[in-house]
Write a structure and sequence with these properties.
Elements lengths: L1 E5 L5 H11 L6 H10 L2 E8 L2 E11 L2 E9 L8 H15 L4 E7 L3 H9 L3 E10 L4 E9 L1
Parallel strand pairs: 4-5
Antiparallel strand pairs: 1-2, 2-3, 3-4, 5-7, 6-7
Length: about 140
């Protein structure tokens, strides 16, 4: 059974390994440690049988959240882990009175765009040249007001 819980320092190594596996410009181990220590962030992990299989992170500013990372281990995709992480993050945001959640996603990442749309996010614009390696535009997607 897959469970979602708050990320702890002990989770940073497996999370950073997933990050390295997936992204062309991954966060470092220290980047996750620093983000967890800020106090104005929410990081959740998806875990199955003691193994971290995905994670999501969000920075908070007043009543707005910005999702920084959503990642599921390559071997664990197509099992609903990303949707579960988004659902739990939206619940946590609501508990903290976050009115709006924003994220960026590569325009070519069709599966992620569909996941966000199914989760209630709306495409509200494009950030030209937002991503590097390769250079690519990003959709700006918003959930909430």
């Amino acid at each position: 059974m897959i469970t979602v819980r708050n990320m702890q320092m002990k989770d940073v190594w497996p999370v950073s390994r997933i990050e390295q596996e997936i992204f062309s410009k991954p966060w470092s181990y220290q980047g996750f440690v620093d983000a967890l220590n800020l106090g104005s962030t929410i990081f959740l992990v998806a875990e199955e049988e003691g193994k971290i299989i995905g994670y999501i992170g969000m920075y908070l500013s007043l009543d707005e959240g910005e999702i920084t990372n959503v990642a599921v281990a390559v071997t664990e995709r197509q099992r609903g882990v990303g949707g579960l992480l988004l659902t739990e993050m939206k619940k946590e945001a609501e508990r903290r009175s976050v009115a709006r959640i924003v994220l960026e996603v590569r325009v070519s990442n069709d599966s992620a765009v569909r996941l966000y749309e199914r989760s209630g996010f709306k495409n509200c614009g494009v950030r030209k040249g937002f991503y590097d390696m390769p250079k690519e535009d990003a959709y700006i997607m918003i959930y909430g007001q």
